[in-house]
Design goal:
Number of strands: 10
Shape: globular
Strand order of the largest sheet: 1-10-9-6-2-3-5
Strand content: 15-25%
Number of domains: 1
Distance between the termini: 13 Å
Largest sheet: 7 strands, parallel
CATH architecture: 3-Layer(aba) Sandwich
Helix content: 25-40%
Structural class: alpha/beta
Order of helices and strands: EHEHEEHEHEEHEHEHE
Amino acid sequence: MKLNVYDTAAAAGQAAAEAAAGILRDAIREKGHAVFVAATGNSQVDFLKHLAAAPGIEWGRATMFHLDEYIGIPADHPASFRRYLRERFLDRVPVGTAHFVAGDAPDLAAELARLNGLIGRTAVDVAFIGIGENGHIAFNDPPADFATETPFIVVDLDEACRRQQVGEGWFSSMAAVPRQAVSMSVRQILRAARIVCTVPDARKAQAVKTAVEGEIGPLAPASILRTHADCRMFLDRAAAALLSR
C-alpha cells in the first residue's frame, strides 16, 4: 500500500483523481476500453468532481460498476447511491456503460445473479473506494467476510455504519437507515488490478490507523488492502493524524 498525504481533503481528492485518470487513460490506450468500480459517500465528492473534469479520458470507452446500494430504497431516494452517482458523476461524463446495483429490485436474487454474471466475465482495471468510520470497504462491515468469492453479496449493516449515515446527513434518524445492503465483496474488490482509496476527514483517522498499522483481519476490513499489489491511499492530514509514520 502506498500512502499519499495532503494538507486538505480537496487536495487529496484532486491528487487521487489525477492518479485515477491516468489509470483510465492508460487502459483505454492499451486495450481500447477501461473498466472501473465507483464508490459514493462524502469521501468521494472531491475525487469524483476532479475525475469528471480530468482531460483526455474517452469516457465512451469505459464501463462502470457500482460498488454498493441499500436494500429497499428507490433510485430517487436522497440517500440512494444510484442517485448520488448520477448527480455527481454520470451527469457530467458520458460513461459508455454503467452497471448499477438495484437494491430495490423485486427479485433481489435475480438482481444479484445478473450483477455477478456481468462482473464475473470482466477484468476490472481499477476500483475507486473509500474507508468507513468503522473500517469497512464497500459495505463490508466488521467482521467482514474475507473468504467468499461471490462478487456481490447481501450484508447486514452494523450500528456504527448506520450511525455514520445519519451523521453525514443522508438519513434523518437511525430508524430510517436500512439494515441491509448489496455490497461488492472484499475478494471482488481485491480482484481489481489497481485500487485508488480516497479517505479524508478526522472522523476516519482511527480507521486509517487500524487499516495501515493494525492487524490484518476481518475486524478491520480495510486492513486487507495491504495485501493488494497496487493500492494507493490518498489522505488529508486530518485522516492521517494518528499514523505513527
